[in-house]
Amino acid sequence: MKSLSEKIDLKNLSPSELVEFLASFGKERYRSIQMLRWLHQQGVESFDQMTNLSKAFRQQLSQISFISVLRPVRVEKAEDGTQKFLFQLEDGNRIESVLIPDKARLTLCLSTQVGCALGCRFCLTGKAGLKRDLRVSEILNQIIAVKKMLPEKTTITNIVLMGMGEPLANYRNTLKATALMAHPDAFKFSSRRITLSTVGLLPELEALSKEKPSFRLAISLNASDEATRTYLMPVNRRYPLSKVLARCRDFPLGRRIRITFEYVMVEGINDSSQDAKRLLRILRGIPSKINLIPLNEAPGIPFKKPSEERVKRFQEILMEGGLLAIVRNSRGREISAACGQLQAKGPLTLPPPCETVPQRNV
Ligand code: SAH
Ligand code: SF4
């Protein structure tokens, strides 16, 4: 009998890898569709639940593979309905996901790494550095675990890869996971409802432009000139603003698709009218919209957020210049669930995980 570490975690496999895996047992292609549905739509936790597979085959499967599961070890709810889920991974590392209700939408914000290597000065996630990349299964299991906690008939409508980590720094796993999110036999999210946020790692953006990504792209801009961006985001030294924007300009976008630019507003650093005007200039020619995110302040972050008037003025300048600019007010601040606040720290408040999740299919 193989130990768990030698067995294959089936949720790490892409649809074509699953076909290959099943073919090695002499199983037909359609079995992979059944399997994708059990794993990702039904969220089954044991082979015994895969009732359209023979008992003998299930037995065979369990000898060389397993179904990984994540369960939250802490769930916090903010007054505005935002919920934060803390997960403990097999190796003891921790990550967080955030569920954000907003009118008709229910958005789940996923992590792609434990920590982050990029150390933006306004972000708490980067403070402790990068521990490791998440596996495909660990990215996907956040969705399955949260779905199981939801009341019946409540569905997650949107996925954003904006939690802990830089998704493009974990390129292969993130792309495999997003492909499964959009796959009709797996999670079935429309690719218009999946958004990946990145600082704009150039080699990965280049690679991405050659694939047909199953998500919308959001770029964390956060400044309108090189010096300010380098000050706020050290990664700008390697991948400067001008080159990131040039890549965005060439990026093959679908019809009526725009790139979202995120702009964390920091008092006295990037919030002047001049910044807004420069932003209009540098984004010219790129189908774009911009999300203005007033800084979420936190101990350890040496900045303040601008006044509401300043944010409003900044937005007006952009709108007058013909750019769609939306102010994203922070959600779930009191439970540290807002952008840049995820650290996966603090006590566990739930009893041992097994008892916490009602056993129901998703
Ligand atoms: N690493 C990726 C995705 C995770 S961060 C990225 O940086 O794009 C998601 C968003 O949160 C980014 O746009 C980032 O600029 C923003 N953010 C980080 N810290 C923040 C803070 N303290 N206040 C407001 N937004 C913040
Ligand atoms: Fe990493 Fe994004 Fe935070 Fe920067 S803002 S440190 S890239 S998670």
Give me the secondary-structure topology.
Elements: E1 8-9, H1 15-23, H2 30-42, H3 55-64, E2 65-66, E3 72-77, E4 83-88, E5 94-102, E6 105-109, E7 113-115, E8 130-133, H4 136-149, E9 158-161, H5 171-182, E10 194-198, H6 202-210, E11 216-220, H7 226-232, H8 241-250, E12 259-265, H9 273-283, E13 288-294, H10 308-320, E14 324-327
Parallel strand pairs: 1-2, 6-9, 9-10, 10-11, 11-12, 12-13, 13-14
Antiparallel strand pairs: 3-4, 4-5, 5-6, 7-8
**How large is the count of helical segments?**
10
Bound molecules: S-adenosyl-L-homocysteine, iron/sulfur cluster
**Ends distance:** 30 Å
Cα radius of gyration in angstroms: 21 Å
The outline comes out as globular
Strand content: 15-25%
- What are the segments in which pLDDT stays under 50 over at least 5 consecutive residues? 351-362
Helix content: 25-40%
> Sheet with the most strands?
10 strands, mixed
Biggest sheet: strands side by side, in what order?
Answer: 3-4-5-6-9-10-11-12-13-14
> Count the strands?
14
Task: Provide an overview of this structure.
The protein has 362 residues and is of the alpha/beta class. The protein is 30% helix and 19% strand. It has ten helices and 14 strands. The protein has a ten-stranded mixed sheet, covered by helices on one side. Helix 10 links the parallel strand 13 and strand 14. Helix 1 crosses helix 2. The protein is globular. The two termini are 30 Å apart. The C terminus is likely disordered. Bound molecules: S-adenosyl-L-homocysteine (SAH) and iron/sulfur cluster (SF4). Iron/sulfur cluster binds next to loops.
